Amino acid sequence: MKYKAVHFVIETPSRGSLAVMRDLVAAAAGEAGFEAFEDTDDGCMGYVQERLLDKELLAEKLEELDIPDCKVGYTISSVEDKDWNADWEQQGFAPITIGGRMVVYDKTHTSDSDLERMNAPIKIGIEARQAFGTGTHETTRMVLAMLSRLDVRGKRLLDCGCGTGILGIAASKLGAKEVVAYDIDEWSVENAKHNAAINHVDNLEVFLGDAHILSHINGMFDVVMANINRNILLQDMDTFCSVLPAGGSLIISGFFEQDIPTLAAKASALGLSETGRKKDGQWCCLLYNS
Fold first, then answer.
1. What is the DSSP letter of 94?
2. With helix as H, strand as E and coil as C, how does 127-172 read?
3. How far is CA 201 from the centre of its chain?
4. Which has the closest alpha carbon to 189: 217, 163, 210?
């Protein structure tokens, strides 16, 4: 997956206001599709998928800040296409328990004795290979928690932007009859298939592509899960609803609290009703019924 790095240079009258401006810039860039940020001495770096970089929208969102005595400039560069998670993947991650019902653990760095000590009926081992979704991120944890509240036994589920495949694997272990997943990243597709295999999940089918692939897949889905950024959610929500029957559930995450009104307006226009909401730090997750 190819990324662009954007160096935001922030001019402020004090170091204190620089910290505030970093948060404001990150929130504005987040609305323009940016996924990650890191602080620099003169501002921050932002990272966005090359295909999602909308320069006009970014400029518009930054202009809306209009903070007195503060100025934001930026430069864009390409990021080397390599496995930036390699060091992190070698270190692994600590087990994450979701509501006492399931535990997500690092398959590579967990021994059989460690696994036996994990007190949860559902155990999901993940080997992350340059793919998002180990359960360590707030959005993944919230979607898993929302999913575990639903009765998915014997139902058909869809995971949009599957990353490691963790959501689809969880759905299968919760009793789903069939799970379909897709991702635009080849690494993620292969990683999701690999993780399904090591978890002995054989009812998860993974496709390479975006929401357009749904036009080639027959049938409806009782539950649709989408842990993607705000702009893609807004773009694809119509498509999600087209495969969601009356009484179906849509779980969305990957956005900030300030994004909720925009997403809620879109959902309402599509006839969806909010039935659940979670918040973890600045991240949020919403549950809708059709």
1. -
2. CCCCCCCCCCCHHHHHHHHHHHHCCCCCCEEEEECCCCCHHHHHHH
3. 21
4. 163
Q: What is the pLDDT along the chain (290 residues), one digit of tens a residue?
A: 678 899 999 998 877 788 888 888 988 888 788 877 888 999 999 988 888 888 999 999 898 887 888 899 999 998 876 554 554 445 567 788 888 788 888 877 777 777 777 778 898 988 866 545 566 688 999 999 999 999 999 999 999 999 899 999 999 999 999 999 999 888 889 999 999 999 999 999 999 999 999 999 999 999 999 998 888 899 999 999 999 999 999 999 988 888 899 999 999 999 999 999 999 987 899 999 99
DSSP-assigned letters across all residues of 14-40 = SHHHHHHHHHHHHHHHHTTT--EEEEE
Handedness of CA 219, 220, 222, 226 (dihedral sign): positive
pTM score, two decimals? Answer: 0.73
Find tokens 């993607």 and name the residue.
228
Q: At 54, which amino acid appears?
A: D
Instruction: Count Cβ atoms within 10 A of the Cβ of residue 282 and give its class: 0-12 exposed, 13-18 middle, 19 or more buried.
Output: middle
